[in-house]
Structure formats: structure tokens, C-alpha cells
Amino acid sequence: CGDDSTSKKTELFLKDLFDNMGGVVCLETEDDLQAAMVTTCTMGPLYGTMMNQRDWLLKQTRSLSKEDASFLVIQQFAGALSEAERDGTENRLEDLIEEQTPGGLNEQALKNYGTVLGSFADLQEPVMDAILSRIRGESDGSVSSKGENNTSE
Fold first, then answer.
1. DSSP H helical segments within 20-91, as ranges?
2. How far apart are CA 65 and CA 57, in angstroms?
3. Which residues are bridge partners to 151 per DSSP?
4. What angle do CA 109, 46, 22 make, to 5 degrees?
């Protein structure tokens, strides 16, 4: 993203090209790009969450097959992603959390996660910080049981 007209034309061309392929976000610096890469590295934990929910379902039910349990969990996540994409404002994720029925099961599950984990940030931020540190060559990307990065010095 440069200041001259050639850079601006190139940026607009690339943005149009990638928007047609699903979308793009333009960033100004390599540091910003590296930080943005981190969220793409959290798909593994998301898949792990989905698998854990499927496996929990299989333990709790007698007639649900692994295939059907997988389908159910995947469709629930697909529906949640569809809701998140709808009316995409910058506060959409906060809005979705606020939309949980007061006293409802989703609100209770969210509170229970907070009780068990402290907060989602307490779980996710040390992991994301460690991945960013690995991308930048500052550590091996692992965290200690206390959530601290293991830096390479």
C-alpha cells in the first residue's frame, strides 16, 4: 500500500481481484500482516472444539452415529458462521453475544465457559501471542502451562 498512483492502482486491482475470490483486507505493514495471519492459525483449535462436541454427543446418546453427530456439529457451526456474516457490522460479534436469550441455555453456556476458563481471552490470547511470536521468529510458538511464551534466546 504505497502513496503513489501506481501503487494505488495496483492495490485497487488486487483488491478487486481478491474480492471476487471471497474477499481481502488490505494492511499497511508486515507486522499487521503477521498479526492477521494468527487468526488463520486457530482453525486447528476450532476443529478440535467441533470434534470434542461431536465426541461428547456420542458419549451422551445411544442412537446417534458418528456420521450424524459430525453432520449435526458441522451444521451448527455453519449456521453460526452464516449468522456472523449476516449484516456484517464491525460490532457483529458483540451483537451476537448480546442477542443470547437472557437466562437461556446459550447465555448460561457462555457464562459457564467464563467460570471454567476465566475468560475466552485468558485461553486464546496466550495461544495467539505465542503463534505471532513464532511467525516473527521470536520463539518456538509454544506456551507454558502458565500461558507464557517460550522465547528463543
1. 30-40, 43-60, 66-85
2. 10
3. 139
4. 115
